[in-house]
Amino acid sequence: MQNVKDKETGQNPNNLIPFIPEGDFYFTKGVEAFRKRKFEIALKWMNKAVEAVPKDPLYQCQMSIIYTEIGSYHKANQILTNVLQSSGDQYVDCYYLLANNYAHLGLLNDAKKYAISYLDMEPEGDFSEEAKGLLQLIDFDEEDDDDGDWGPSIDDEDELLIYQETAFYHLENKEWDKALLVLEEMTVQFPEHKTAKHEYAHALFFNGEREKAIQMEQELLHEEPNNLYSHTNLATFYYEANREEYKNHVGALLNVYPIHEQQKLRIAVTFARTSNYEEAYGRFRLLNKGIVKSHVSYYRWYCLAAYQVGAIEKAEVLWKEGCKKHTILSTEIEPWNL
C-alpha cells in the first residue's frame, strides 16, 4: 500500500494515515445487508453506525426498521420512542413506523393513534398511503372508539411505552424486584392501564408474596369475571401452590381463541405452565412466530411443551434457537431437565 501524500507538501509522511470509517460508511454497509435480507449482518453494521454517531436519528430509525423486519417489535418501538423524545416532531415517519409495529403486536388502539398522528402531521407524506391502508384494516369498533376520545396524549403514550417496554424486559428476564418497582409506578401514572395490575400480581407472586398476589388477582377477577389475564394468572398461581382451583381457570381458557398474538401466547404459556402440554403445543403451533419470537417465554415454554408431547427434536431446535436469540436462556438448564 502506498503512503498517502501530505496535502500541503505533496510528500509521503513517515506514518500511514489510518482509515477510520465514519458513521455513513457503517450505515451504507448496513443498508446493503438489509436489502439482501441479511438482517443479522445489517444490525451489526447499523450498531456500529449508531456507536459512531449516537445522535443521528436516521441511523436509529433504520435500525428500528431492521428490528421490525425480524419481528422484534418491542425493541423497534423503544428505539423509535427515543428518537421522538430526542428530536421532537422532526422525524414524523416515526409515528407511522410505531403504528405499523403496534398493528403487528395486535395493539390496534395504539396503532390507530399513531397512524392518525402521522397523517395529521404529514397528510401527503411518504407513508401516507400506507397509514391510510393501515387504518382501513383496523377494527374501528375497538374499545374507547365510541366517543372519539383517544385517551392520553402522544407525550403520555411515549411515557407509557417506556414503562411497558421496561416492565416487559424485567418480567421476561424474571427480574421480579425491578419489575415490581416499574409496574407500581406505572399503575400510579396510568391507573386506567389495567394490564399493569395483572402483571404486578404476576411479579408479586413469583417474588414470594403468593397470598397477596392471589388475593389481588381474585379482586380483579371479581371486577371483570371474564378477564383473560385474571384466568391465566390464577391458573398459574393455583397450580404453583398445589391448589385444585387451577383447573377451573384452565377450563375457562380452553375455548378462548383471542385475535391478538400476545394474548394467544399468554394462553399457550399458561397451558404449558399447568402441565397441559398437548393443549399448549397446539396453541404454540398456531402462533405467528414473527410477532412472538422476541418473547423469552415463547421459547422457554414452547420447547418444554414440544418435548413433553414427544417432539424432542423440535424442542431441541427451539431451545438452541432461543439461546441464540436470548442470552438469558443460554444461562439456564433445558426446561425438560429441571
Please summarize what this structure is.
The protein has helices at about 25-35, 40-50, 55-70, 75-85, 95-105, 110-120, 130-135, 155-170, 175-190, 195-205, 210-225, 230-240, 245-255, 260-275, 275-285, 290, 295-310, 310-325.
Q: CATH topology of the largest domain, anyone?
A: Serine Threonine Protein Phosphatase 5, Tetratricopeptide repeat
> CA-to-CA gap between the ends?
58 Å
Q: Work out the radius of gyration.
A: 24 Å
How many DSSP helices?
18
Summed up, the domain count is: 3
Identify the quaternary structure here.
single chain
Tell me how many strands there are: 0
CATH class of the largest domain: Mainly Alpha
User: What profile does the largest beta sheet have?
Assistant: none
Shape: globular
What's the pLDDT, averaged over the residues?
A: 84
Class computed from helices, strands and strand pairing: mainly alpha
CATH architecture classification name of the largest domain: Alpha Horseshoe
Which percent bin holds the helix content?
55-70%
Tell me the series of helices and strands, N- to C-terminal.
HHHHHHHHHHHHHHHHHH
The CATH homologous superfamily of the largest domain is termed: Tetratricopeptide repeat domain
Percent range for β-strand residues: under 5%
Q: Could you list the spans in which at least 5 consecutive residues all have pLDDT below 50?
A: 1-19, 140-154
